[in-house]
Design a protein that fits this description.
five-stranded antiparallel β-sheet
């Protein structure tokens, strides 16, 4: 029987193999083969130095045309400010940001739910010199999307999507799922990286984005249809997700 390699031997073998590879083969090659996963590299100033085909598909621009650009060249200012703030935090702390739930509007008005993750990039002296990020589109079913491996609460999520015109509460969801509020909170954090309350907001704002771009309803009518009793509370909720007002969103994407 062959002896089992020790952890140090396995680590040494891995490092030796990686050291023999030409730089960039794994990440760049594999991420080009993932059509739904946006992948990019940025330097310390936030300038894009690489973007894969998925990025160009979402932004409707050739990958080479994205190089040298910043988020402010590609997105509305308020949204770009948030993306840049995340980059700066990763760069400053040297710590990764994993699975941040975001809504992204594609050119033409399509709404996508995405999970974004970012990591710091270090040089040979362990100094952070840039960041790398991915943004993966969550799978779409009949209702809002769920990560593929986690379907245990799909019926609950479909219920939310089908009853956005009703004042659903977290307590309602817990009762429907036959679990405590605390258990529901844990499930949502595990599967969606957010709380039930925040998910309800995201679901309604996703519906609002569609109504803003594809109907002539007033902002007040849209707010009312999604159970917001006050225009101001709807505007605050919308801005907390999309980083701009409903009015600005409609004007920018139209």
């Amino acid at each position: 029987m062959c002896p089992t390699p020790t952890p140090s031997e396995e680590s040494s073998k891995f490092e030796g193999f990686i050291g023999r590879l030409r730089s960039g083969q794994i990440a760049l090659g594999l991420f080009e083969a993932l059509p739904e996963v946006m992948f990019w590299l940025k330097d310390e100033t936030g300038i894009i130095i690489f973007a894969n085909r998925a990025c160009s598909d979402v932004l409707r621009s050739k990958p080479e045309n994205l190089v040298g650009k910043t988020d402010h060249d590609l997105y509305p200012r308020a949204m770009a400010d948030v993306y840049q703030s995340d980059d700066k935090k990763v760069f400053r702390t040297g710590k990764a940001m994993h699975n941040k739930l975001e809504l992204l509007t594609r050119p033409g008005g399509a709404i996508e739910w995405r999970m974004a993750s970012k990591i710091p990039l270090f040089d040979l002296n362990d100094t952070v010199i840039g960041t790398a990020g991915i943004s993966r589109r969550l799978e779409h079913g009949e209702g809002p999307p769920l990560p593929t491996p986690h379907r245990a609460i799909s019926e609950l999520i479909d219920h939310v999507n089908e009853h956005l015109e009703e004042p659903i509460t977290v307590q309602d969801l817990a009762q429907r799922a036959s679990m405590s509020v605390s258990s529901l909170e844990r499930r949502f954090r595990q599967y969606l990286g957010t709380t039930p309350k925040r998910y309800l907001v995201h679901a309604r704002i996703a519906a609002a984005c569609d109504l803003l771009l594809n109907t002539t309803l007033s902002i007040g009518q849209i707010a009312s249809s999604l159970t917001y009793q006050e225009h101001a509370s709807f505007t605050r909720a919308f801005a907390s997700v999309m980083h701009m007002s409903p009015k600005d969103y409609r004007q920018f994407y139209r």
